[in-house]
Amino acid sequence: MSASGLEGYHGEILRRLKSANAEIGSIIRITAKSREVLEGTLFPRSEYTDPNHIVLKLKNGYNIGIHYEKTEKIEVIGEGPKPHFTKPPSPPKSPGLPRVAIISTGGTIASRVDYRTGAVQPALTAADLASVVPELASVAEVEAHILFSELSENVTPAQWTTLAEDVAKRIGGGVDGVVVSQGTDTMHYTSAALSFALQDLPVPVMLVGAQRSSDRPSSDAASNLTGAVALAARADLAAVGVAMHQDMSDRYIVAHRGTRVRKCHTSRRDAFKSIGSNSLARYDLQTGQIEQFEDSTRRRNPRKLIVEPHFDHHAYLLKFHPGFNPEIITSAVSSGARGLVLEGTGLGHVSKYCYDAIKKALKEEVPVFMTSQTIWGRVDMNVYVTGRDLLNIGVTPLEDMISETALVKLMWVLGKTRSPERIRELMLQIVAGETTERSPIMEAV
Amino acid sequence: MSASGLEGYHGEILRRLKSANAEIGSIIRITAKSREVLEGTLFPRSEYTDPNHIVLKLKNGYNIGIHYEKTEKIEVIGEGPKPHFTKPPSPPKSPGLPRVAIISTGGTIASRVDYRTGAVQPALTAADLASVVPELASVAEVEAHILFSELSENVTPAQWTTLAEDVAKRIGGGVDGVVVSQGTDTMHYTSAALSFALQDLPVPVMLVGAQRSSDRPSSDAASNLTGAVALAARADLAAVGVAMHQDMSDRYIVAHRGTRVRKCHTSRRDAFKSIGSNSLARYDLQTGQIEQFEDSTRRRNPRKLIVEPHFDHHAYLLKFHPGFNPEIITSAVSSGARGLVLEGTGLGHVSKYCYDAIKKALKEEVPVFMTSQTIWGRVDMNVYVTGRDLLNIGVTPLEDMISETALVKLMWVLGKTRSPERIRELMLQIVAGETTERSPIMEAV
Fold first, then answer.
1. Residues of B with catalytic annotation?
2. How many CB atoms lie within 10 A of CB B38?
3. What radius of gyration do chain A's Cα atoms show?
4. Which of A297, A306, A321, B84 is the most buried (most CB within 10 A)?
5. Which residues pair with B102 in a beta bridge?
6. Which residues of B touch A114 (CB under 8 A)?
7. Which residues of A carry out catalysis?
8. B388: closest CA among B377, B378, B398, B397?
9. Pairwise CA distance, residues B344 & B435, whole Å
């Protein structure tokens, strides 16, 4: 693909860009009729973009489309590095490359626009995935297959079981790493599920998705997949991770620990963030190098792993708020809850109006756990009267475990035992880095 | 207070600090028996600190206590600026100072340690508040009173009404600004409530709290209160804000917009963050200057404001997750819900297994709204099939309104009307900056 000219632009819009002496790669300033001013690098228009839009890459890394009828003035204000679409230098494909299994489960990374509804639907096959990202051939010997095809909001705990078993099978088959492609909406729930279901992993298991579908010029599908496959193939890790853009630049694909990650933005490419812990490693899209941040879990040679893939979905996550009706707790119990995670406020609180409902749940042998809706930080129920009261009633605080991970862990623990005492014990036992330890010599004052 | 010596340290711990030639203000390195190394400025020990702890101020601004029995070695590695506890130069108190009403409702900022349980309980009177922070006298003419005394997790929507009416009364009395002290756990819910209940404000209303109680050396009570009073007294604003530490330094108290703020950490002083919008203003604790970031709402001279203080608590916030039982929606409706906010995933999704329960709720004239559990970003239900389906069913997306604000707004709207059509209309009408507008000429591609 040529890096100059005005590819993809036609008609009036082409004429206006030409008369401004703009080329693909020019840094241009657009003044809108509304007086708003936007500056960025002119990008080629792909066949999927609305033909009336000028595509700009902003400094913050976003691609945006600006309807040309809304523009008042277009000026070239500089020349940026021409966008290049060539592959980075890569070794020729050889049988010596690491073997990576890609398991496709659906989502944006494997989707295309449905012209009937105009919306995005899961569609591409696993083979398509590899074919639309030719870079993969130089990174690993890829074996792709479709396990199921589901938008991630529809993925169930039963499908986590299917997935965990399939990942274990691929690892048993001798691959050097596994990549699971999934929709991003619930990817952090799935990564937590795999973290608990697959213990003593010998190789990395990377979940990957895309925030923009692969037919959009700003799609992160190719770069995320390349990074995830590279990390699965070569990182000296043996853990479940989520591999996505680190920030708004296009430089790094970062692997977050499966139990310490959360989707924190509806649409940004760097929506996934490690919460209160370091990420595991990152892949540099420019140099192809991998940097590792954690040295806890290295690849191991014995390929045997422990597979405990069962989840009992009778676990509830209830978010407390002022005006919260304690009946929600009671109806959760009567509709079959076997364990509850309360997402409390601050250091781990709910109002005194909930005490009776919690006592009733505990009396019916439904264990109750506490996390915080603040997301960051650690619950500490020894500081305030409310926390002490809740501890006395029998609520179990979950340290700095994030709520979503706590819920998934509870489903996993319920899949192993029904004894309230054993459930509590297992919830507090660190299985996959889901809580971080307090520094033993420090104490907040 | 002298700035050197080894105040507050006694016995063995004093002996060890002396033999290391450490003084208050020295930068010291402590090597623990566990080999962990900590560096920071030596702070005086207050009578409330455990006598066996050495108090260090770390570079990141945190104060920590280290049990001396766990230390192996103590070395002085430099001299920092001596901690100073003198007041900044301040004008003498004069009747020309702005008048600020402080309304106390409880929480850490007005709390002390209960030696019976060892936990923190609300206790100080409003007059105490002013007396423990003598700086206030130079900032404003303060009139303090206690409205109620409640830990914030116990504050109810009915108490928001009491509070809104009291704030309106103080404004009617001619003050130049109002400060409301409250526990931080649900302070962002209260700030949203006041934002909707008090419209066309003539002066600023600042909520303030503390993350550490005032008897701890690292307490943020005094600095937060000083900042909040200064902002209420002098900022050229007419809006509800939350005034707390901007970051880990002790420099700025920032005022976040009441509808765009969230507690994002269990314990840090800078736990409150503006979500997807600028903060309103900030107060520089060093220079006493105020910087304003928004020019939308300036102080107004007509002191009449619109008071709509009623909230109907029959609103539910339900957080979706994989394995979510749709019966929760149904039992919310049968236990009297008059409106639901679903905290969906990603761009605003819940699983297809919830469709029937949502349809049933809507059929019973219970409007259903959608926000995202990602916290940041905007829901957009036109992108994926799931979003389209939910729109077709009749779910109403709430743009980039944060979930907690959406819930409070729904309670407020339900306090005004029971018509589902009118509820929807009011939920989408911007009342207090609760959603931000999309840039009209930009479109994500």
1. 108, 184-185, 263
2. 18
3. 25
4. A321
5. B144, B179
6. 385
7. 108, 184-185, 263
8. B397
9. 17
User: What tens digit of pLDDT does each residue of B289-322 get?
Assistant: 999 987 668 998 877 899 999 999 999 999 999 9
Cα(B100)–Cα(B118) distance, integer angstroms: 34
Q: What is the CA radius of gyration of chain B?
A: 25
Give the CATH number of domain A315-428; options: 3.40.50.40, 3.40.120.10, 3.30.2010.10, 3.40.50.300. Answer: 3.40.50.40
Cα A231 to Cα A128: distance, rounded to the nearest angstrom: 21
Residue with tokens 């708004």: A248
Q: CB within 8 A of A88, min separation 6: which ones? A: A135, A285, A286, A287, A288
Mean of the per-residue pLDDT values of chain A: 86
CATH 2.30.30.520 fits A11-79, yes or no: yes
Residues of B in contact with A36 (CB under 8 A): 439-441
Do B349 and A153 lie within an 8 Å CB cutoff?
Answer: yes
- DSSP assignment of A283-310, as one string? EETTT--EEE---S----SS---EE---
Q: Say whether A267 and B49 touch across the interface (CB within 8 A).
A: no
Domain ranges of chain B: 11-79, 99-307, 315-428
- Cβ-contact A197, A161 below 8 angstroms: yes
Give me the residues of B, 344-373, that contact A with CB < 8 A: 344-353, 372
B249: number of Cβ within 10 Å: 12
Q: At what angle do helices B157-172 and B187-197 cross, to 10 degrees?
A: 60
Q: B177 vs chain A: nearest CA distance in angstroms?
A: 26
Which chain A residues are Cβ-neighbours of B60 within 8 angstroms?
Answer: none
Residues forming a β-bridge with A319: A343
| Closest CA relative to residue B30, chosen from B9, B54, B62 | B54
Minimal CA–CA distance to A133: which of A228, A65, A55?
A: A228
- The nearest CA of chain B is from the CA of A157 a distance in Å of 6
Q: Are B386 and A154 a contacting pair at CB < 8 A?
A: yes
* Cα angle A371-A376-A377, degrees, rounded to a multiple of 5: 75
Residue B124 has pLDDT above 70, yes or no: no
Question: What are the tokens at A296?
Answer: 């806890």
Q: Which residues have CB under 8 Å from B91's CB, separation 6+? A: B138
Q: Which of B153, B383, B413, B436 to mutate to test the interface with A (most CBs of A within 10 A)?
A: B153
Q: Which of residues 222-261 of B touch A (CB under 8 A)?
A: none
Note the pLDDT tens digit of each residue in B353-399: 999 999 999 999 999 999 999 999 999 999 888 999 999 999 999 99
State how far the Cα of A375 lies from the Cα of B343, in Å rounded to an integer: 15
Instruction: Using pLDDT thresholds of 50, 70 and 90, give the confidence band for residue A10.
Output: confident
Please state, in angstroms and rounded to a whole number, the distance separating the CA atoms of residues A351 and B325: 24
Confirm whether B99-307 and B315-428 share one CATH topology.
Answer: yes
Helices A187-197 and A157-172: angle between axes, nearest 10 degrees? 60
Instruction: Tell me if B345 and A316 make a contact (CB, 8 A cut-off).
Output: no
pLDDT band of residue A23 (cuts 50, 70, 90) is confident
If you count residue pairs, one on A and one on B, with CB atoms under 8 Å apart, how many are there? 290
Whether pLDDT at B120 is above 70: no
Q: Which CATH class is domain B99-307?
A: alpha beta
A322 in B contact zone (CB under 8 Å): yes
The tokens for B300 are 């107004």
Tokens for B12? 């063995």
Residues of B in contact with A311 (CB under 8 A): 323
Please choose, from the candidates B86, B175, B189, the residue with its C-alpha nearest in 3D space to the C-alpha of residue A374: B189
B316 near A CB under 8 A = yes
Judge if ipTM > 0.90: no
Do the beta carbons of residue B95 and residue B141 sit within 8 Å? yes
Shortest CA gap B391–chain A (Å)? 13
Residue owning tokens 């906010």: B341
CB contact under 8 A, A186 and B350: no
